[in-house]
Amino acid sequence: MTHQPSRTAIRNGLVVTASDELHADVLIEDGRIAAVAATGSTVAEGWSAGRTLDATGKYVLPGGVDAHTHMDFPFGGTFSSDDFETGTRAAAWGGTTTIVDFAVQTKGRALREGLDRWHAKADARCAVDYAFHMILSDVNEGTLKEMDLLVEEGISSFKLFMAYPGVFYSDDGQILRALQRGASNGGLIMTHAENGIAIDVLVEQALAAGRTDPRHHGEVRRALLEAEATHRAIQLARVAEAPLYVVHVSAEEAVAELAAARDKDLPVFGETCPQYLFLSTDNLAEPDFGGAKYVCSTPLRPREHQAALWRALRTDDLQVVSTDHCPFCFTGQKELGRGDFSKIPNGMPGVEHRMDLLHQAVVEGHLTRRRWIELACATPARMFGLYPKKGTLQPGSDADVVLYDPHAEQTLSAETHHMNVDYSAYEGKRITGRVETVLSRGETVIDRRTFTGRAGHGQYTPRGLCQLLR
Ligand code: URP
Ligand code: ZN
Ligand code: ZN
Predict the structure, then answer these.
(1) H or E element: which one contains 216?
(2) Does the beta carbon of 218 sit less than 6 angstroms from any atom of ligand 1?
(3) How, if at all, do strands 401-411 and 59-62 pair?
(4) 443 - beta bridge partners?
(5) Which atom from ligand 1 is nearest to the alpha carbon of 192?
(6) Residue in 322, 326, 348 to alter for ligand 1 test, most ligand atoms within 8 A of Cβ
């Protein structure tokens, strides 16, 4: 293990947080931010530090918080190809220093059993800090009671699926009960909002008509069925007087449902993911089964939906960008669905590229720098009870810090990425900006484009309640 001095000064960078941009130096002591002071000020000049990092020409950012990952996740008879070791190492490479992964309740079993399994998967393997949401696959009296205990111990959000009948699916009554429980114990209910029952009818009809290619995955998972489920989830949350967080929003019509709810001042939140902002049904239509690389749910949409997503990110109708990182190799995993798109494991790789792709959005004028950090760091931390420990750079925050070169050029590729998956969803895409150095609680895990971290450095991080509720 490399020795890390207890005091580090990062000098001459542009510090960017959700609220400020300033030419400032950052002092780190014992793994936390000790001070931020204007570069050249007598305060900053007076610091003595065992180590100085020169950030001239660089941004100094809070480490990214990716609130939606699936490491070692069971789906369609296989498991996502990144485990906690490879997935969190890739996260570090991309400037993400905290992930919130989804522990899974097996149907008919206790939440505790699923949570213990997720702790065992992650324990001593992570390169960066991690926390858990819990997937509720089975809402009943027992699991509702368990929710209270989980909230108390730092698992303060629960995902329910309106899709995938027979697997993770919950019906409206179960969702209502979970929302009511969340209203009383403070847990935040997250919904995968797609009408899975109707989608399964369309899947059956498509396959019967010989429409078996990956592009039909996008066609049967209709935008209207995302919007309908989003609307229904919002109404159920209103009835329960509970807040709601809708994951991986991809359809313009679903965004409209969220915006309408927020216009009524309802505590309804939404996230989208880079794949919906940068990719489209054109990718799902790639030849020779290549579209399978882009099969995820909610699905990629026609390109025209992207403008609505960007607008919602600017107007705060969507508040978070996470990755829904759930990679499956093309060879041997995505291929399970050759001849039947419904058997393609759902999910895409992305944990390594979120900060960069959102910086590209800054370069292209979709977002401001501060909004980039708000969407990728501060708001996910607030949403899931991690702020200001995570998501910002203020005295007392964990020293999760990214030195970011905004002018470096890079080309995304499976040849160079660090995720354990045999393709890149962004193969050949040229972008401006690159993570140079990453600190996690003051320890250097990426040092000028070399991995210096270790499995087991990342700590389990219990969470508080959602911090965005009045
Ligand atoms: O396709 C996806 N999103 N796979 C992961 C599971 C989920 O629904 O989030
Ligand atoms: Zn989902
Ligand atoms: Zn997911």
Answers:
(1) helix 215-220
(2) no
(3) antiparallel
(4) 440
(5) 8
(6) 326
Task: Tell me how far apart the terminal alpha carbons of the chain are, to the nearest angstrom.
Answer: 44
Residue 3 has pLDDT above 80, yes or no: no
**DSSP assignment, residue 377?**
I
Output the CA 37–ligand 3 centroid distance in Å.
Answer: 39
Instruction: Name 248's Cβ contacts closer than 8 Å, sequence gap at least 6.
Output: 68, 192, 271, 272, 273, 276, 296, 297, 298, 324
Question: Is the confidence at residue 4, as pLDDT, over 70?
Answer: no
pLDDT tens sequence across 382-391: 999 999 999 9
Angle between helices 305-315 and 252-263 (to 10 degrees): 30
Backbone CA torsion sign across 436, 438, 443, 446: negative
Instruction: Report CA(229)–ligand 1 centroid distance (Å).
Output: 16
pLDDT for residue 227: 99
Q: What residues pack around ion ligand 2 (CB closer than 5 A)?
A: 192
Global pTM value: 0.98
pLDDT, tens only, 180-206 = 999 999 999 999 999 999 999 999 999
Q: Is residue 360 a contact partner of residue 431, using CB atoms and an 8 Å limit?
A: yes
Is the CB of residue 186 below 6 angstroms from any atom belonging to ligand 1? no
Distance in angstroms (rounded) separating the CA atoms of residues 425 and 283: 9
For residue 220, pLDDT beyond 70: yes
Is pLDDT at 1 greater than 80 in this prediction? Answer: no
Query: Are the CB atoms for 26 and 9 separated by under 8 Å?
Result: yes
pLDDT tens digits, 291-316? 999 999 999 999 999 999 999 999 99
Give the three-class secondary structure for 410: strand
Please enumerate in sequence order all residues whose Cβ is within 8 A of that of 383, keeping only pairs 6 or more positions apart, or say none: 67, 188, 245, 269, 319, 320, 466, 467, 468
The answer to whether residues 34 and 395 touch, using CB atoms and an 8 Å cutoff, is yes
| Cα–Cα distance measured from residue 214 to residue 289, given in angstroms and rounded to the nearest whole number | 7
In degrees rounded to 5, what are phi and psi of residue 22? -150, 145
Establish whether residue 92 lines the binding site of ligand 1, counting it when its CB lies within 6 angstroms of any ligand atom.
no
Calculate mean pLDDT across residues 399-410: 98
Sign of the CA dihedral running 338, 162, 190, 277: positive
Q: In this structure, are strands 59-62 and 7-16 parallel, antiparallel, or unpaired?
A: parallel
Convert the pLDDT of each residue in 121-155 to its tens digit.
Answer: 999 999 999 999 999 999 999 999 999 999 999 99
* Pairing mode of beta strands 401-411, 7-16: unpaired
Fold of 63-383: TIM Barrel (3.20.20)
